Q: What sequence folds into this?
């Protein structure tokens, strides 16, 4: 081969890798085709999905509602806690750190069950499954959002704070007009990614039967005996919406990058 | 020179034995000094000597450990509310401009007057236009800081401070981060302010400017004011060893 040594070499290596991957992929596909139970696939009847479209849509509605709650309340608490974490009063900062670490470092499933069964035992306040679900997902979302908002706030240059202080701006103005707008810009991509995570994580709430998409799918499959069709359809629904949201995030990121001068 | 210069009013800044520590390090050591209304005080000295720290104690950006500072009618250390009120009467201009980057020039100038002084939008807007004309960049009012040159940004920063109609202006090396060709446009604005009778404390390395504009020059090093003299004396007959060494290096 002609050309510079380095180029040829790297070209060859890439080609070799490609050939290897191709061979591997073809082999795997062949194995799958051989193993697959085509009879079962042929007998699948997806009409059940259409038949139960209304309850499924209602379940999806609840899932989206939970996602929205986790997003809105999570951002609300997260912002307040992030601002408190800048307080000169140390015990307040420690309390925020404790909350964030506890809720970030325990599984949502454990939080959910603990809040639903242990909390009423301590407080005497009984919560419905949906209320426990909303509480758990909001508390965990709040912990993650606190970290994101805090990182955003701390990325705002010190000079912006100093200018705000030197002008004698009221606290409210300093936060809402000077610090939070540029912080938000830094925060938006991770915020949207987190909302997508909670959109998917809301399926865990089905353990308490909160009637979101996963619970509904489960119930329908129990009466129709068509779990494969139903869970395939539900997976597709999660995927399509999740994919749309991640594409939207990419779009937002690109727009933000462009407007950054 | 214009009226206002040389006219000495009442004392507006009085530091009494001020000590400022960062941990155990003393950035200011028993500093005592007075400034009267209408005076222009230039502050020079080697880097790390405490010039910025001194300036920043005057509007409460740095707290002090010992002594007291009287600025206008406020006695520092003071509570949050009182410091906030003081800051509205003491303008500050930073080396790095510190304009609000996500706001237009207009918004930079009207934010504090509308939210901290309670001016109406229209009043604040009028004031912004008038001040931008004064610093010579009225046509940039709808631009964003990122679209302006360093010299223009610093002039906006001066106008932003003036929009609060302060009684005292603090400048911390206002031309140090500018390209050389932009230094004069900013110095001209500051000179104009001095001539209008504004009380000013200016940390600067521009010796020509200090010699020409200052009523007094302070030499700060090791957290102390070692020399406090009129410019002719300060530059003509150094009285302190370190001052003489500093001047011979810089002039
Ligand atoms: N926030 C701070 N924390 C610790 N040390 C500081 C801080 N700010 C200033 N210093 C120290 O105080 C001294 C004086 O600093 P500064 O006032 O900025 O000097 P100058 O403006 O004369 O260059 C320096 O030794 C500097 O390192
Ligand atoms: Mg300095």
A:
């Amino acid at each position: 081969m002609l050309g510079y040594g380095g180029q040829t070499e790297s070209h060859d290596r890439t080609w070799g890798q490609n050939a290897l991957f191709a061979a591997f992929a073809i082999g795997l596909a062949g194995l799958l085709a051989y193993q697959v139970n085509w009879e079962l696939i042929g007998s699948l009847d997806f009409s059940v999905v259409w038949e139960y479209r209304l309850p499924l849509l209602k379940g999806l509605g609840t899932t989206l509602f939970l996602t929205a709650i986790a997003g809105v309340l999570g951002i609300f608490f997260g912002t307040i806690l992030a601002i408190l974490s800048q307080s000169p009063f140390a015990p307040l900062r420690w309390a925020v750190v404790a909350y964030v670490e506890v809720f970030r470092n325990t599984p949502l499933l454990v939080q959910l069950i603990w809040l639903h069964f242990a909390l009423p035992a301590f407080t005497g306040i009984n919560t419905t499954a949906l209320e426990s679900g909303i509480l758990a997902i909001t508390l965990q979302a709040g912990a993650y959002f606190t970290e994101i908002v805090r990182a955003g706030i701390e990325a705002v240059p010190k000079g912006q704070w100093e200018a705000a202080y030197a002008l004698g701006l009221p606290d409210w103005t300093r936060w809402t007009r000077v610090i939070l707008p540029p912080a938000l810009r830094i925060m938006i991509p991770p915020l949207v990614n987190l909302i997508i995570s909670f959109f998917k994580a809301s399926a865990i709430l089905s353990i308490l039967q909160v009637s979101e998409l996963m619970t509904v799918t489960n119930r329908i499959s129990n009466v129709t005996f068509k779990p494969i069709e139903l869970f395939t359809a539900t997976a597709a629904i999660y995927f399509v919406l999740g994919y749309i949201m991640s594409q939207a995030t990419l779009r937002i990121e690109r727009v933000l990058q462009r407007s950054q001068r | 020179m214009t009226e206002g210069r040389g006219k000495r009013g009442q004392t507006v800044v009085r530091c009494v034995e001020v000590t400022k520590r960062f941990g155990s390090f003393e950035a200011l050591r028993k500093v005592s000094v007075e400034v009267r209304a209408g005076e222009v005080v230039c502050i020079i000295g080697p880097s790390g000597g405490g010039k910025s720290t001194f300036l920043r104690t005057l509007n409460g950006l740095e707290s002090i450990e010992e002594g007291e500072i009287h600025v206008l009618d406020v006695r520092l250390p003071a509570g949050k509310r009182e410091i906030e009120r003081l800051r509205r009467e003491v303008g500050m201009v930073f080396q790095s401009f510190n304009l609000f980057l996500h706001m237009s020039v207009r918004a930079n100038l009207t934010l504090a007057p509308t939210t901290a002084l309670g001016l109406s939008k229209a009043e604040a807007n009028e004031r912004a236009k008038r001040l931008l004309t004064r610093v010579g960049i009225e046509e940039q009012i709808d631009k964003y800081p990122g679209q302006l040159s360093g010299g223009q940004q610093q002039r906006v920063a001066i106008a932003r401070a003036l929009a609060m109609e302060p009684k005292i202006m603090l400048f911390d090396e206002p031309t140090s981060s500018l390209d050389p060709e932009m230094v004069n446009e900013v110095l001209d604005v500051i000179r104009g302010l001095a001539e209008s009778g504004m009380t000013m404390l200016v940390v600067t390395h521009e010796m020509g400017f200090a010699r020409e504009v200052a009523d007094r020059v302070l030499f700060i090093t090791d957290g102390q004011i070692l020399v406090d003299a009129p410019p002719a004396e300060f530059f003509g007959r150094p009285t302190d060893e370190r001052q003489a060494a500093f001047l011979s290096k810089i002039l």
Residues 1-89+170-251 of chain B form a domain with the Rossmann fold fold (CATH 3.40.50.300). The first strand of chain B starts at residue 11 and ends at 22.
